[in-house]
Automatic annotation (TrEMBL):
The keyword Cell membrane is assigned to this record: no
Residues annotated for Ca(2+) 2 binding in this entry: 131, 178, 181, 186
Catalytic activity: 2 a phenolic donor + H2O2 = 2 a phenolic radical donor + 2 H2O
Binding locations of substrate: 100
Disulfide bonds: 2-7, 58-254, 137-165
Organism listed in the record: Eriobotrya japonica
InterPro entries linked to this entry: Haem_peroxidase, Haem_peroxidase_sf, Peroxidase_pln, Peroxidases_heam-ligand_BS, Secretory_peroxidase
Name of the protein: peroxidase
Length: 258
């Protein structure tokens, strides 16, 4: 959400007959629908309290829900800055070039994050969110079916991925980003990178590039240090492109413009 025109809950808006929304861009198809539903239900619950009606934005609820799911899955809790308004547009085309691609190298990652005022350390810390979530085979098939197989990929892991992602696989099959503790927010993502078990090129490059490797090694060993860096980076990310004044409003239904 934040990388595409700011933290404004534009990613929750549903497509209509005459507008293909941000969430239906191919790069967003692995975003879980029940996550959107949770934010929509939380908004309805808040607005069900008379003195709270139309006071809390979907953008703030999304930021709070993100914090809560991280905490519920074993990650750090942190205070969320509030006061965002909801965005007034959501288009699939606005996503183009705004999200990191799974094939990016370190320079491309740094450049994209720097455009939002985020440092290399912030980028590596935020990549650690890949300790949760899933992807689809087409995002890394180039690594497991190249000849030879991507040499930075752990051989055993590569074989497992080939078994889960045969060449004509159903494109909806979900593959965990973290093969070791996929439901737990922890620093195992970085331990995986040290072992060559980053799912994407853009994950593994954080270890293979000597400029970012020291952070990966530190956070693989020190969970508390990773948690602190993650909180710092999430707080900075949460300030990106925030809408205020007439650039936004408070949506009545998170999935529909007022």
């Amino acid at each position: 959400d934040c990388s595409v025109d700011g933290c404004d809950a534009s990613v929750i808006v549903a497509s209509t007959a005459n507008n293909k929304a941000e969430k239906d861009h191919p790069d967003n198809l692995s975003l879980a629908g029940d996550g959107f539903d949770t934010v929509i239900k939380a908004k309805a619950a808040v607005d069900g309290v008379p003195q709270c009606k139309n006071k809390v934005s979907c953008a703030d609820i999304l930021a709070l829900a993100t914090r809560d799911v991280i905490g519920l899955s074993g990650g750090p809790s942190y205070s969320v800055e509030l006061g965002r308004l909801d965005g007034l547009s959501s288009t699939s085309t606005s996503v183009n070039g705004k999200l990191p691609k799974s094939t990016f190298n370190l320079n491309q990652l740094n450049s994209l994050f720097a455009s939002h005022g985020l440092s290399q350390a912030d980028m590596v810390a935020l990549s650690g969110a890949h300790t949760l979530g899933f992807s689809h085979c087409n995002q890394f098939s180039n690594r497991i079916y190249s000849n030879p197989v991507d040499p930075t990929l752990n051989k055993t892991y590569a074989t497992q991925l080939q078994q889960m992602c045969p060449k004509n696989v159903d494109p909806n099959i979900a593959i965990d980003m973290d093969p070791t503790t996929p439901r737990k927010f922890d620093n195992v993502y970085f331990q995986n990178l040290v072992e060559g078990k980053g799912l994407f090129t853009s994950d593994q490059v954080l270890y293979t590039d000597s400029r970012s490797q020291p952070k990966v090694r530190t956070w693989a060993k020190n969970k508390a240090a990773f948690n602190q860096a993650f909180i710092t980076a999430m707080t900075k990310l949460g300030r990106v492109g925030v809408k205020t004044g007439k650039n936004g409003n408070i949506r009545r239904d998170c999935s529909v413009f007022n």
